[in-house]
Amino acid sequence: MESFALAPTTFVGRSQEINDISALLENPSCRLLTLIGPGGIGKTRLAVEIAARVRASFPDGIYFVPLAALSRVEDILAAIAEATPFRFLQDAHDPREQFFNYLREKHSKRLLLLMDNFEHLLDGAELVSEMLAATTNLKIIATSREALNLQEEWVRQIAGLAYPEQDSAAALGAYGAVQLFVDRARRISGDFDLAENSHSVVELCRLVEGMPLAIELAAGWLTTLQPASIVQEIRRNMDILATRSRNLPERHRSIRSVFSHSWELLDEAGRDVFRRLSVFRGGFTRDAAEVVAGASLHVLAGLVDKSLVRLSATGRYDVHELLRQYGAEQLDVAGQREAVQRAYSDYYLGMLVRLEPDLKSHGQIAALDVIQADFENVRRAWKLAEQRGDYAALGRAAESLHFFADMRGRYHEVVHLLRKTVEHFPPEPDEAQQVALYRIQARLIRLVLLGTMRIDFDVAAQIDACLAAARARGDQAETGYCLLVAGIVSVWHARNDRCSDSLFNAFELFHESQAIFEALGDPFYMVDVSVWDGSSWMYGGDLDTGVDILMRNLDILRDIGDRNGVAWITLNLSEAMLAALDYRGCEQYSREGLALMREIGSLKGILQSMFKLAAMSTLKGDLEEARVLVDELRSLADEVNSLDGKMISVGLLGFLLCVMDEDYAGGAALALENYAISLEPFFGYNDVAARWAKAVSACGLGDYDRARHHYGAMCWERRDDPGPATVILALEAAARAHEGAPDDAAELLALAFSQPDWVSGWLHRWLLVTRLRADLEARLGAEAFRAAWERGGQLDLERTVKAMLGELDDDLTTDTSEDADAANHSLPEPLSRRELEVLELIAEGLSNREIAERLSLSVGTVKVHTRNIYGKLDVNSRTQAIAQAAKLDLL
Questions:
Q1: Global confidence as pTM
Q2: Edge-to-edge, what's the strand order for the sheet holding 112-116?
Q3: Which of 220, 578, 623, 653 fits a 20 to 30 Å CA distance from 47?
Q4: In a 3-state reduction of DSSP, which class is residue 191?
Q5: Strand 62-66 to strand 112-116: parallel, antiparallel, or no bridges (unpaired)?
Q6: Which of 162, 186, 183 is CA-nearest to residue 174?
Q7: Which pLDDT score is estimated for 170?
Q8: β pairing state of 139-144 and 112-116
Q9: CB distance 654 to 672 below 8 Å
Q10: Quick one: pLDDT at residue 686?
Q11: What is the 3-state secondary structure (H, E, C) of 538-578?
Q12: CB contact at 8 A, 458 and 451
């Protein structure tokens, strides 16, 4: 026998909660289960659904007892009696005595009682305990915004329906919040299309954090508004979350009425703290709640008990977004907004200042975790300080914030924040404001460069201004910092313009900066500058000096506890090993670097080290590890929207598809995807992996001319590098075999296989090469094939690769200079065929990017050719190169 009717609408989602709670009710020890959560979260609807699912376990009856309308605890008993078969007798016996006599008579009956909305009648909770004591098999499910606090009680916190964190997934319909909105939307408009409205639906579900009542009230507006407009209205004011439905309880006809009920149940101390807590974003700590909102532990615990504040397993607190909006309205009504916002801003900007020493020492990772957990609060505190013009506080906090951005790879968010702040400064700042402005600007420039972001301002001029201001006021620490950033700017110019003068300038700036930090006794920046100096030596071609500097600094960094610095030196050493053609060393440092980057949580470092390790694993033939790394790299790049990460991951994945699966069409498609990404704004490092994928896929598809077009772009600067050489040799062997030159093909393939295992292991895994080798042996015969194989193994790798790149004027044996043009031959070192092609396109006025596209090269390779042209013509610029070439009749 049951006393509740089935709900008029379909129940959606919560399958896991239903399974867990249903199983709990089967436990003999669980006789009182309280579902707690804020109003509108769906406690009642869930309890009714569970009752329907466990009907068979309670054959003697399931009864629904509504308590919302009651105002006195004395009325609870009457409400229970009305919901059950029990009836009071008009005799001398006390009603309470009659009811418990009835229960004792039914003590073994398997009954389930649903007591709904208990939060305002908690003083009557003892009645529940007495009922359980009087029976054997009675079980009770209570719904409440606050626990009953009985010894018999089992408590389950009910949150909103599951909602997607991002709307890119195809399976949006698997989330309960989305299911509910779509179900209600189609009741209103039968042709509602989720695909067309997916972004707005996801935003709405996020905004209300999956609260079922809010979703249903929002869906009710679809007869008047589009989903996007509903989202906008909710952001402005929660009053849109209301309905005119006649058969919905009055207390559920608007979110405001639901929250007002909870507000009325609070005492004045609870109300004061709750409205102050509305200032937080993304959760808060107990310390922050005490300092900013004056929340004692007792009051905070009370708000948690009343489901107005949530406590996570990590010990952080947060408030549902709609409840936060309600609290913010109450803060305005009380006239406390400005004072609370100032306390909030002072707390979080002060936190950044307090954490600065930890970020440079052994407390680094813990400090980064603190900032990351409270980043939304830090960002809002920063904006509030900016709005009220507290530039001094922003200047003091800028150091820690920029460390966090760099060490955790949060470049885009922090750069955007800093740029907006710089724009907000007065046109004519006073002396104190100038100090803060230049301090923020210098850190902004460093982040823009390290984050490989679009540069649309003159970084050199701006850092020079910052440096001049620091020198003028005698601020040695800031002068040293600006010199460091100016040095980084010079390195950036050297890499992009191939200008040796810029590199020499960087050395001078780094040395002056280091001298200042040595005088100040600042080991953190002493090492930071020294590492940049070492990296610049490596870039300039002096690997031994660069590596020696890096190795000397490793021990210092370990001593001071700079884990971020240790991680980046390790990754720089992997670059040094690669430049020295030490592939084993590169793998070792890449593997160590990845572990360190994961430890500190550096997104940029994880992506870069993961790519290097995946590339090393690919070349040595451990394709399965490479595929796992690339898949993880691609997923992470998508998650954090890293253009660099997306580009390198799809390029290497395309290569792996070709080699592992012979999916040449798929590999070509990924290479094109890489190219599309590379057309985005400035990005930092190579698309060589995609060039490899393009060439290998073209070869696999039988388009050998197209494969050859990519040879030049597949190499780094050195032509004796066995990594790219094995790829080029294998492709050219396939092309020569197709063109009827099996002897040449066998020799080239032999040269590829004669390279060390850690760069040629992948050849053993590519079935195309396996078939090619067998085919060549069949065509030549065993003896001729063996002879060709022996000859190929003795070829000079660098000279052979240069011949295939067109950098020798003969095929594989003729000296380049013998048949060179007379004008070109007059140079001390003649230009190669490819360099002459690049020179002609420079003369046409094409940019490096346009030349790369015309010749199917990478931009980096074009820069190498341009630098070589400058060196051979003894010039320093494009204009000088064109003039000198015309003078020598090279054009």
A1: 0.75
A2: 62-66, 112-116, 139-144, 32-36, 153-157
A3: 220
A4: coil
A5: parallel
A6: 162
A7: 54
A8: parallel
A9: no
A10: 52
A11: HHCCCHHHHHHHHHHHHHHHHHHCCHHHHHHHHHHHHHHHH
A12: no
- Residues 375 and 353: their CA atoms lie apart, in Å, by 14
The conformation of residue 474, written as its DSSP 8-state character, comes to: T
Whole-angstrom distance, CA of residue 163 vs CA of residue 161: 6
The pLDDT value recorded for residue 884 is 84
Alpha-carbon dihedral sign for residues 621, 624, 629, 633: positive
Chain centre distance of CA 168:
14
Cβ–Cβ under 8 Å, residues 173 and 163: no
* Residue 377 to residues 288, 292, 356, Cα–Cα distance (Å): 10, 12, 17
User: How many residues make up the chain in this entry?
Assistant: 891
Rounded to 5°, angle at Cα 805 from 803 and 808 = 40
Task: Find the DSSP H helices in 409-522.
Answer: 411-424, 431-450, 459-472, 476-497, 500-520
- Please compute Rg for the chain using Cα positions: 36
Distances (CA, A) of 553 to 141, 269, 537: 64, 55, 15
- DSSP structural state of residue 143: E
Residue 816 is predicted with a pLDDT of 37
From 662, 729, 736, 743, select the one nearest 697 (Cα to Cα): 662
**CB within 8 A of 420, min separation 6: which ones?**
386
pLDDT at 7: 57
Bridge pairing between strands 153-157 and 112-116: unpaired
Residue 5, SS3 per DSSP = coil
Structure-block tokens of residue 35: 């579902």
Are 502 and 491 a contacting pair, CB within 8 Å?
yes
Q: Please return the burial class of 448, using the count of CB atoms within 10 Å of its CB with bins 0-12, 13-18 and 19+.
A: buried
> Can you list the residues of the chain whose pLDDT is less than 70?
1-9, 89-93, 166-170, 243-253, 454, 496-501, 540-541, 675-687, 716-717, 808-823, 825, 856-861, 864
Which phi and psi angles does 537 have, rounded to 5°?
A: -60, -40
- Beta strands 32-36; 153-157: pairing state: parallel
Helix or strand (DSSP H, E) at 115: strand 112-116
352, 359 Cβ separation under 8 angstroms:
no
Query: What pLDDT, on the 0 to 100 scale, is given for residue 676?
Result: 66
Question: In the prediction, which pLDDT does 677 show?
Answer: 65
CA of 548: how far to CAs of 545, 572, 596, 627, in Å?
5, 12, 21, 34
